[in-house]
Amino acid sequence: MRSPRRCSRNGCPRQAVATLTYVYNESTAVVGPLAAFAEPHTYDLCEPHARSLTAPRGWEVVRHEGEFEPPPPTTDDLVALAEAVREAARPAPPSSAPSATSRRGHLRVIPPTH
Of 11, 29, 39, 107, which has fewest CB within 10 angstroms of its CB? Predict the structure, then answer.
């Protein structure tokens, strides 16, 4: 099973391997290994975004010097369920041909197969 955490950068589909935390009172951005849990005021980043992050003028970037390792697979059923729900909620790519199923919100209507 893969990690459900993805890079926080808009449009980036890569797996997160690092966590960015801002320390506002010290004007510092800290990029370290992926935190065990997603926190509200941190950002998960893929390796390219973690390596290329820059901070505003006057700020310091403290970056993990080692390799960013993907998190080990998890066997937590609750995480697996949450990932399945997230995948189902993502909009389907546009298709030129009408499909046999119709989609409304997060539910899917599947016609009977008699």
Answer: 11
3-state SS, the chain, equals: CCCCCECCCCCCCCECCEEEEEEHHHCEEEEEECCCCCCCCEEEECHHHHHHCCCCCCCEEEECCCCCCCCCCCCCHHHHHHHHHHHHHCCCCCCCCCCCCEEECCEEECCCCC
Residue 53 token pair? 């992050």
Residues of the domain holding 25: 1-70
Q: What is the pLDDT of residues 9-24, one digit of tens each?
A: 999 999 999 999 999 9
Q: Is 8 part of any domain? A: yes
**Predicted structure pTM score:** 0.58
Are 5 and 16 in contact by the 8 Å Cβ rule? The answer is yes
Cα–Cα separations (whole angstroms), residue 29 to 19, 20, 32, 47, 59: 10, 7, 10, 16, 7
Query: Per-residue pLDDT tens for 28-72?
Result: 999 999 988 888 889 999 999 999 999 889 999 998 877 877 766
